[in-house]
């Protein structure tokens, strides 16, 4: 198994190099050169497996022998042993055809833990073997940051700097990041949007001397290993609901397009996925794309689902690469056009191919509140605002009534207590390990959206830059 860049001009890498590389050197994102495929018999044999065993079986083909199998299995067992629910990603049935898959039983209460608990351990394993250190730099709209910090805190070979948009996350999300006072962790509150933060991270990766001087690594979903670990829960839900003998649809609240791209990957590996329903909040660039075939950014609006306040969805490039028949030069050209003009369009044929699988729906603020309220009233189930966006999209979608739909519950309601309380009348409480979150000391640096200032900050926090052996 080798990995190629979506822009076709970076070196082909093996798994362990991709894990540490983050963004490809040509600015593209790494994808597997071919998709491993499971037969129907293999998929049937996955039914009823413990999550860690399923995870190992789904991910092993991606390693290409570059991580020892027994060591990998131990990392996977350890990663998912830290989850509060024995099923790791349990399914809850809401009505006769709709399930919610709870992805928030990890330590920071969002789906990011599913991949990042493994990623932190993989970093340690691979860096220990190589005798190397890395400087991780990441952008977050609220959830990746805390999950990455939790996964990397106090790791000997990793320094981590996370950029979040100042005053645009929930207070719980911010405190989950800024109250971690480990010496290898730094938080930047960037005076800008998530898109500005993501842009700054990519600019650091695209500055080759800076990148090499700090041994930069990524925890965002530009890192292939994030996607790899997220594929597993789609397979888990699919086989639990009857795959490969029954198709399943997924409704995914979407921002950076990483989560729904993992579902696309699961389908490429043989899971019978009938439809992928993309739910956006009022930052609806993706919903507009799936309706028109044109992607155009029109500014980020703050919403009650702040983790999805994103306009430039970085993983869309991985789908675009396939829509362009894996032509890296053509993909690079479209991405350059988007960067220069804030707009690009695909052909009618490419749009038709995308629409054979995807469907996009926007969920405004009132609809998000109404979905949280009515679901609680009718079923007693409490949704966080992001999950509500996905569920609303599921209900708006044109789906075959015989096919089960899984709506992804990407965050615990207690991460967004104000919006949830306003919708349901009940204030969700944090679990015990976070019950004193608001009494903990915070540490963060508020910085302007200036790439030189940000680079200086990251350099100063990097033990690689300081020459520590
Ligand atoms: C709670 C929550 N829901 C949905 C999303 C959107 O996921 P993605 O960016 O993978 O599309 C995010 C952020 O990524 C999130 O934190
Ligand atoms: N919603 C995310 C944004 C970053 O997405 P990622 O999947 O690329 O890490 C967040 O919570 O930070």
TrEMBL record:
GO terms for molecular function: pyridoxal phosphate binding; threonine synthase activity. The keyword Transferase does not apply. Its EC number is 4.2.3.1. Its cofactor is pyridoxal 5'-phosphate. Pathway: Amino-acid biosynthesis. Residues 2-80 form the Threonine synthase N-terminal domain. The keyword Amino-acid biosynthesis applies. InterPro entries: Ser/Thr_deHydtase_PyrdxlP-BS, Thr_synth_N, Thr_synth_N_sf, Thr_synthase-like, Threonine_Synthase, TrpB-like_PALP_sf. Keywords: Amino-acid biosynthesis, Lyase, Pyridoxal phosphate. It is an enzyme of class 4 (lyase). SUPFAM superfamilies: Tryptophan synthase beta subunit-like PLP-dependent enzymes (SSF53686). The modification N6-(pyridoxal phosphate)lysine is found at residue 112. It catalyses: O-phospho-L-homoserine + H2O = L-threonine + phosphate. It holds the Pfam family Thr_synth_N. GO terms for biological process: threonine biosynthetic process. Belongs to the threonine synthase family. This is Threonine synthase. It comes from Aerophototrophica crusticola. The lineage of its organism: Bacteria, Pseudomonadati, Pseudomonadota, Alphaproteobacteria, Rhodospirillales.
